[in-house]
Amino acid sequence: MRKTRLLRCCTLTGIDPATGPGALRDLAAEFPFVEFGVLYSVSQAGSGRYPAMDWIERLVSDLGGPGGPALALHVCGKAVFQFLDVERRSHVREVAAHFGRVQLNLRATVRTPGQIREALALAPAHQRIITQHNTCNAGLTTALLDADRHEVLFDASGGLGRLPDAWPDPITGKPCGYAGGLGPDTLPLELPRIAAAAGGQPYWIDMEGRIRDAHDRFDLVAARRALAVVSARLTPQP
Fold first, then answer.
1. What is the distance between the alpha carbons of residues 128 and 151, in angstroms, rounded to a whole number?
2. Percentage, residues of the chain above pLDDT 90
3. Gap between the terminal Cα atoms of the chain
4. What's the domain count of the chain?
5. What confidence tier does 158 reach under pLDDT thresholds 50, 70, 90?
6. Which of the residues 50, 99, 119, 146 could staple to 44 if both were Cys, CB 3.0 to 4.6 A apart?
7. Residue 1 located in a structural domain
8. Which residues constitute the domain of residue 125?
9. Which residues contact 189 (CB under 8 A, 6 or more apart)?
10. Would you state the pLDDT for residue 3?
11. Contact partners, residue 124, CB within 8 Å, separation at least 6
12. Which CATH number do you get for residue 132?
C-alpha cells in the first residue's frame, strides 16, 4: 500500500449531541489528523445534524483552545449571510472566531468574493475560510485565487454524498480538499484516486453522510473505521 505525508487532515462533518465531547476527545487522541466539522443552519438548528448554537458554544468551551482537536464550523443557509455581513454584529461570526476553519456553504453571487475578502480581513489570524468549488461557484474560486487564508473544497455533488466520476486536479497554490461519497467502505478505493489527482500538492478529505446512522446521528463506530483506513495510508511524520 502506497503511503503519503500529503494528506493534511480528515474532516468528519456533522458531529452532534449524540456524541459527547469526551468521545470526540478520545477519537482525536487516537487519530490526531482528524478535524471535527460542525454544521450550523439558522432554520434547522437543533434538529438532526444541525446542532443548536448553545450546544456549539459548549462544544467550543469543552474542546477549543490550545491542545484541543481541530474544529471547523460549516455555515449554511441564512447564517452565511449573517457571517458575511461585516457591517453588523453577528453572533455567528463571534462563535466562528473560535474555529480554525470556517466553511461557507453557499451559491455565490457577484458580491460574494468581496464579502469573503472583507470577512478574511476581520477574521482571527489563525482562521481560514473554505468555499465549495462546483459549477455554480467556479467563478468564485477564480475571483479568490490570490486570497490568503482561502481554501477550496471540491464537492461536485453539492453535499449530497455522491462519488464523482473522477477527482479533479488541485488548483496550483491553493489549499484544496475533496468530498463526495467518502466513508469507511469507499475510502480504500477512493483514497489512492484522490492522492493521484492531488499529485504532489497537500490536500484534505471531508466526509459526512456515510458516517451517520439510520437515525441521522453521528456514528462513532463508522467514524473510527474511516479514520483507521486513512491512518493506514499515512506516513508517520519525522
1. 7
2. 81
3. 19
4. 1
5. low
6. 50
7. no
8. 7-233
9. none
10. 66
11. 97
12. 3.20.20.70
Cβ neighbours around 23 below 10 Å, total: 15
Residue entry with cell 474532516: 11
Indicate whether 168 belongs to any domain. Answer: yes
Residue 95 has what pLDDT? Answer: 96
Contact assessment for residue 210 and residue 216, using Cβ atoms and an 8 Å cutoff: no
- Spatial CB neighbours of 131, under 8 Å, sequence gap ≥ 6: 103, 104, 106, 108, 116, 137, 140, 141, 144, 150, 151, 152, 153
pLDDT tens digit sequence for 126-149: 999 999 998 888 899 999 999 999
List, for residues 179-214, the tens digit of each pLDDT value.
999 999 999 999 999 999 999 899 999 999 999 999
Residue 2 lies in a domain: no
Q: Which of 42, 91, 100, 95 is nearest to 69 (CA)?
A: 100
pTM strictly above 0.90: yes
Spatial separation of the C-alpha atoms in residues 156 and 168, rounded to whole Å? 10
CA distance linking residue 151 with residue 173, whole number of Å: 10
pLDDT for residue 122 is more than 70: yes
Q: What's the pLDDT at 46?
A: 87
Q: Enter the C-alpha cell of residue 238.
A: 519525522
Q: At what angle do helices 220-233 and 187-198 cross, to 10 degrees?
A: 50
